[in-house]
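Posting here for the record, re: uridine 5'-triphosphate.
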Amino acid sequence: MSISKVVIPAAGLGTRLLPATKSQPKEMLPVVDRPAIQYVVEEAKASGIDDILIITGRGKRTLEDHFDRSIELERHLEAKGDMAKLAAVRSISDGPATYFIRQKEPKGLGHAVLCAEKHMADQSFAVMLGDDIFVSEPPAIAQMIELYNNNPGIIIALQEVSDSQIPLYGIVSVCKKQGKALLIDDLVEKPSLKAAPSNLAIVGRYILTPEIFDALKSIEADKKGEFQLTDAIRYLMGSVPIYGYKFTGCRYDVGSKLTYLTTNIELALMRDDLRDDLRKFLTELIND
Ligand code: UTP
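Prediction output follows.
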C-alpha cells in the first residue's frame, strides 16, 4: 500500500525564534504572504496525500483556524468581487482531510510522532516538519513516496551540509547504494565534526513504517528529557530497512532567526509579483 497519510509535527516551543514564538507557533510565522506550514501542506497536497494530521501544542488555535473555512471572510471577499483573494482563501481549507492532535508536553520530535499512533492505524506514513519548506518539482515528499513504493522501509531525506553545519544535524552513515536509495547503517544525532560518519544530514521529510511506534516507546529520553525520532529509527536498524534519499530541490529552514529572514528573501525572489522590486531594493541597500 502506498502512502496516503502525513503527520506534520508543529508543537515545538520554537525557542530560537523567541520572543516571536511566545504565543504563536513558529510554523504560523509568515513566509512572504502565508504561514510556513501552508507551504508544507501545499507540498503534501501536490503529492497526493489525502489525510493530514497536524500535531499542535501551545497556541494551537491559530493553526486550526488557518486550515478551517472562514465563511465571514469568504462572504466579504465575494461581496467585493475580489475573486483572486477568495480563491486563495478557499484553497487553504479545500482538499485533504486535516486533523489535529495536541502533544500535551513538548517532549521532542519522537514524542510528537508517537501522538499519531492511533491515527496511522498500522499504515506506513510520511512525516513533514512544519518548519522546513522544500521547493522542488516533483515535490520532495512525492519523490520519497515513489522511492518507498520500490523500496518499502523507512526513508529519510538527506542533504549534504558544510562542516560548520554538521554538529547541528543528525548525520548518517551509508553502507550501500541501491539506485537512488542509500542503505543506512548508522545515524548520529548532532555529532562533532570528528565523530561525523559523513556530511549527509537528516532533514525534515521522512517515510516511516508502523514499527516506529513500538521503537518510540522503547527508547529512553535524551539528556534534555526529549524523545528523539533518530533514536527510534536507530533502534529499528537491522529489523527494518532504513534508506536515505538525497532529494532533488532546495530546502528552506524557518527555525532560526537568520534562516527565517533568508527564507523570506529567497522565496520572495521566486515570486513574479515581488522579484523585481525586491531585487531593486536589495541592490540599492547593498550599494548604499
Ligand atoms: P525543532 O527542534 O526544530 O523545534 O523541531 P523546536 O524545539 O520548536 O525549536 P527550538 O530549538 O526550541 O527553536 C522540529 C519540528 O518538530 C516539532 C517542531 O514544532 C518542529 O516542527 N516538535 C518538536 C514537536 O512537534 N514537538 C516537540 O516536542 C518538539
